Every structure is written in structure tokens, then in C-alpha cells.
């Protein structure tokens, strides 16, 4: 694949970033942090991940498709996000490289456009990162954002991120109070894709020697409730839990138990281990070990796809959108009755329902609506 994107001037690079996972993907995203000056340290969600990078060197890492990240560096860096090939998760997609604008270069308005519907129609998405208390002021084409948009907090920052589906064509996104926010747009088709930042300011930035430690959130007292069962020690961008004497810290690194019985949670990201090793599932997860993703907020994928991550669907062929509720058949708008009968959904040039999907007819013996 031909991966090309203009690189901004070094003087406009930044030190603070927030990232949003790509919609519909379940196999993770690849990131690369490229240093512009010697002696650069890189922090990911408050933890040091690379130290003393020299100019031109980079730190590369893969993040899960459920990870919203905060990335900071002690010197200006360039951050790029790579979409992986469709063989990673058997999803309609293809590689692309997306430059992530630094928080310092966010704008208050953007104009973007998607590819045209011909020769093929892409499934198109927006990723937005905005201050927690400014979400309600966002406008898409002068209208409030759709009600189905789900926001996730960016760890260690007072920012929230979301990705959602948009229609084909040109769009404007702005904030009514001119608050600054980050925006990227991208899309997928069968072995095809694109992605680019919606825009950024190109103001020269001051060189920052160390991450800003004055804006750290005290997770131990956030919302008046400690994330730790016993003792919480705040650190920059994170926190550490410990237990009273005679108790043992469990695998979720938050809960304490009198025995060293291992926690039954499949992952500390999925659930909180309670006394006795029982797992209390976090939102979006279910099952005895909190290993089963739940898709309640996206209508259980409309029974047209698989729930592969919390409120994340892998749609069946012929369907798209967060809840797999939209057909990729370009003429489906007047064939709505097709969706009511299994194996019906392909429309011919006369808008007639036929057996099959948006990709073509099938040989199944099914009576479809006239």
C-alpha cells in the first residue's frame, strides 16, 4: 500500500496527544512516536515507555481496539497511527497512515469530505477528542452530534474521545463556544481505506523539557471515590494501590483479599476483583470471568453482526455502522422491507428485493417481498 501524508514543520510538533481507536476494528492499532530532538522520553498513559530517544529515532507499539490513550513526551514528537490490514480481524479495511495532531494544535472548527459514492461507497467515520465539559457544544453540519455517539475518557487528561459513522459528502464540525478539539476522519471498504487529520494549527511551539505535571488528575480522589479497595497512592497520570497488613493485592491491582486466591477476572481491564476472587464486571463486559463483550448500547449489533468488544460490532457482509443497522446496498433506501426477511436485502435496478446481500444475489430458497 502507498502510505503518504505531509509532515508538518518540526517547529509545530507537540508534546501532548490523545488517541481514539479506529471504529469497526478489533485487531488493534499500530502507533509510532518519532523524536525530533535528542534525549526524548515518551510516556503512555502516565507510564514511561521509551527513554532517551535521539532525533529521528522512534518508539513503536500496538494498542488494543478498546484503548483510548494519553501520550506525552519531554521533547516535540510526531505521532502517527496505522490502520492494520483486513487479515488482522477479517474486517473490511486496508492499511493507512494517520498523523495525530498534538493537543497544542487543536482547532475550534473543521471542514472535511469523504470519497464520493462511486466507483465504491466507503463506510466513513469521524474521531473527535474534546474537553470533558465541552462535548455538548459540538455541532456537525450545524446540528448537535447524534445521540448514539459514545464518549470515553482519555486516561490522565480532562478529555473524552469518540468515533462515529458519518454520511458520504462534505461536512463541517465546529464548537459553538469556539472551544478547541481534535478531529480526524477515515473510512473503509473491501480491501480499501483512507484516513487523514481534519486539520490543525501550525503555530510554533515552545520546547518542553518535561511533561506538564501541574495538570495531573488525582485519581485517588476523583469523584470522591477511590479506585482502590484499601490504600491509593497517586502518581503522575496514574495511581498505585496497596493493601493493609494481612491482605494481598489481587490481579486487578485494585482489590485486596485475606488470601492470595487469584482473581477470576480474565483481564484487569474487564473487571474488578472482589474479596474471594469474584469478578465484578466493568461496563461492556459480562460472564463469570468478565471475558464476554456486551453490545447493549448498539442494539446487540441488530442481529446482523458479532459483538467483538464492548459496544463494538463486526458486521455481517452487506451491513455497516456502529449497530450494523445500515445496508451497504446503495439503493436500499426504498427496499426497507428486505431487512425483515432473512437472506433478503439485495436490490436490483428496479428497487426489487431479491435473495442475497448488498454484494449480490444468492441461491438460497427464500421468498422475498415484492
Give the oligomer, counting copies of the same chain as homo and different chains as hetero.
single chain
**First-last Cα distance:** 43 Å
Total DSSP E strands: 31
Overall residue-averaged pLDDT value: 82
User: Which radius of gyration do the C-alpha atoms yield?
Assistant: 23 Å
Task: Estimate percent helicity.
Answer: under 10%
Taking the sheet with the most strands, its summary is: 7 strands, antiparallel
Structural class, by secondary structure, is mainly beta
Indicate the proportion of strand residues: 35-45%
Low-confidence stretches: none
Number of helices: 0
| Gross morphology | globular
Annotation keywords:
370 residues, mainly beta, five-stranded antiparallel sheet, 40% strand, globular
Write the layout of secondary structure elements.
Elements: E1 14-19, E2 29-35, E3 40-44, E4 47-53, E5 58-63, E6 69-83, E7 96-99, E8 109-113, E9 123-131, E10 138-140, E11 143-144, E12 152-153, E13 159-166, E14 170-175, E15 182-189, E16 192-197, E17 231-235, E18 238-242, E19 248-249, E20 256-257, E21 271-273, E22 279-281, E23 285-286, E24 292-293, E25 305-309, E26 312-315, E27 319-320, E28 326-327, E29 344-347, E30 353-357, E31 360-361
Antiparallel strand pairs: 1-6, 2-5, 2-6, 3-4, 3-6, 6-7, 8-14, 9-13, 9-15, 10-11, 10-14, 12-13, 15-16, 17-18, 19-20, 21-22, 23-24, 25-26, 27-28, 29-30, 30-31
